Amino acid sequence: MDYQTQYQEYKALADAALNTYFADTTVSYHRLLEAMHYSLTAGGKRLRPVLVLAFCAACGGDVRAALPVACAVEMVHTYSLIHDDLPCMDNDEYRRGKLTTWKAYGYDMAVLAGDALMIYAFETASKAFSMGADPAKVGRAIGILAEKTGIYGMIGGQTVDVELTGKAVPREKLDFIYRLKTGALLEASMMIGAILGGASEKEQKRVEEIASAVGLAFQIQDDILDVTSTSEELGKPVLSDEKNQKTTYVTLVGLDQAKADVAEISARAVSLLKELPGENLFLENLVTMLVERKK
User: Which of 11, 122, 247, 249 is the most buried (most CB within 10 A)?
Assistant: First the structure.
């Protein structure tokens, strides 16, 4: 199966599963569910659930048993985007070419939708216990999702990012922010997939190294796109980092060096992938796509 066909197959599995969690529209607070569903279906590529499923399959696991946790990762990611766009954070009005949740549903409902998605993610992940997956592996996967999302992961990175907005940020501190704010959830996706797929401790460590490199390259590419792309291509405002007076990889090392570093880091990630058992051409193509994307 070629790369695009395989990617779309994983994406379709994730989309179908996500829709099942929003089938009840009869509740009195249906507007909250609408806001949550609106945010989840706003045109995302489903990179994180695809990573969960792909690494699970690469390690010999059953991707259908991993679907609840894959969906949970996407819910956490979507919650983070909703809150990122709020006026108290990045104050963005468009994402993926559509109005952001707070512009479409109001500030109050956007906060609630983000909060609800965070909690619903863990409720959803727990459904994997009844779908044939090893309970110990599911428990470990949920623990990783919590760790990589919380104060030692994505939220911790976002906190440091907010505190340093408008201030000079040294390279080591920027790497720290990137590793937590963006890299942590990508790491979680790959590690969760590997664990649910039955990876050994050694293989899990290798996947964590791969994920760390991919997360850094992904965020640097995001910085590059913020200054080289257009709002039409990205589906969201460009030059937002400049508007918010944020230090980025590009402002620190320059555009050319940033591009060179993305190439070097992604090549390192692909090299580490080759150390995993079996043929992993889809994963190699997926990693390359992540860091060479144009939007």
Answer: 249
Q: What is the pTM of this model?
A: 0.88
Whole-number Cα distances in Å, 289 to 36, 38, 112, 284: 28, 26, 33, 9
Condensed to tens digits (0 to 9), the pLDDT of residues 21-63 reads 877 656 666 889 889 999 998 878 899 999 999 999 998 899 9
Residue 186, token pair as written in the block: 């990508």
Helix (H) or strand (E) holding 58: helix 47-58
Bridge partners of 98, per DSSP, are 95
Helices (runs of H) and strands (runs of E) counted in the chain: 16, 2
CA dist 99 and 112 (Å) reads: 17
Task: Measure the CA–CA gap between 267 and 259, rounded to whole angstroms.
Answer: 12
The alpha helices in 85-199, defined as continuous H runs, are 101-105, 107-125, 135-149, 154-163, 171-181, 183-197
3-class secondary structure, 43:
coil
- Are β-strands 94-95 and 98-99 bridged in parallel, bridged antiparallel, or unpaired? antiparallel
- Given a contact cutoff of 8 angstroms between Cβ atoms, the answer to whether 264 and 253 are in contact is no
Q: Which amino acid is at 18?
A: L
- Number of Cβ within a 10 Å radius of residue 224: 18
At 129-144, the pLDDT tens digits run 988 789 999 999 999 9
Rounded Cα distance, 268 and 27, in Å: 49
Distance CA 161, CA 248 (A): 10
Q: Three-state DSSP class for 239?
A: coil
